[in-house]
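Weekly modeling sync, notes
Attendees: AB, CL, MP (scribe)

Item 1: holo prediction request
CL wants a bound-state model with magnesium ion before deciding which constructs to order. AB pointed out that an apo prediction alone won't tell us much about the pocket. Agreed to run with the ligand included and paste results into these notes for async review.

Input as submitted:
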Amino acid sequence: MKIGILGNGQLARMLALAGKPLGLDFSFYSSGVDGCASALGDGTYCAPGDARCIREFADGVDVVTFENENVSPDVLDAIPVDRILPSVESMRVAQDRFTEKQYLENLGISVPEYFVIDSERDLLRALHKSQSPLIVKTRRQGYDGRGQMLIHTDQDARTAWQKLGREPDSNGLIAETMIAFEREISMIAVRSQDNEIRYYPVTENRHEHGTLVTATVRPDDPLQSKAEDYTRRLMQTLDYVGVLGFEFFDYRGELLANEFAPRVHNTGHWSVDGAICSQFENHLRAICGLPLGDTSMLVPSTMCNIIGDHPDLADVLKLPGVHYHHYQKQPRPDRKIGHITVCEHDDRLMREVVSSIMKMFGSEGT
Ligand code: ATP
Ligand code: MG
């Protein structure tokens, strides 16, 4: 079977790395330059708006999937809807933070208090009404904390509107109450074409400046079954096929949904080394109509993102239980260019190893 992936970044690359042993072939679509997945399959480059080129790409594969939910409508319109998994509908819901929050609320899933912002006045009003700091986000196109600002004062609100309110393709802003959460967690799950759902154990995530730094999986998280319940509601309502990542705040014993991604997710990368079947293989199994793999954890793991520059490889490989994943991307400040997974049963040793890695990155936290 041949899989067409919209995008050729690291998620496309890791999907292909998981699919090759199953005998799958890959074709990567992009409108730009070569990406880091290209070495693992054919590349198709179409000029923006070239519907015929995109159609030919889709006709040349058995199923189309994507590594990023911000695919332009031009591209989606050119691909027959029954050829794309997960569905275009799930992508549309996730593309806009307002649509996404409404959708989740309709399923009885709690989200942080939020305000839809179309003007500076809206933002000032929201700030006065909430009486707490707000995180202002563009409705569309944000990732890794980009397109977001924390505001406390009227002056902050004016600056945020100036900076974010006029961003192209943002579709306006949303302002959320800043949640003083105890933890951030996420659920990775996979649903098959005949409604079987399998859940990975939830990860506990740590961010710095809005970017994911580590994701840790341990057995028996107290919020596992609540997160499974929310994820099941979402996947069934969307008639979802494939892997989905769902981010939550653990706040005063309550689970508040932050956002979901209709694709394989950064907080699921640990599963390549720490689970029986990885999120990447399971995504491919689901979209190809194959039996799902076991999502059980083999060993507690922490995934550490490599951001900006690579550490010395030998220094990392000296540490016990580590697996290095180099994405073959050009290093650039703030860019995710790889990850390291630490697999370790002894929690104290795990923390020590992660702390050594964080020191190499100039970060003190674990
Ligand atoms: P990513 O692509 O990394 O998932 P993103 O750009 O889509 O990020 P969010 O997930 O909405 O953006 O926000 C990034 C991070 O900012 C969150 O993981 C969390 O740490 C922090 N954050 C976002 N919204 C809130 C909130 N309402 N209260 C507290 N912290 C928040
Ligand atoms: Mg997020």
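Recorded for review: Residues 30 and 54 are 9 Å apart (CA to CA).
Action items: CL to compare against the apo run; MP to circulate these notes.
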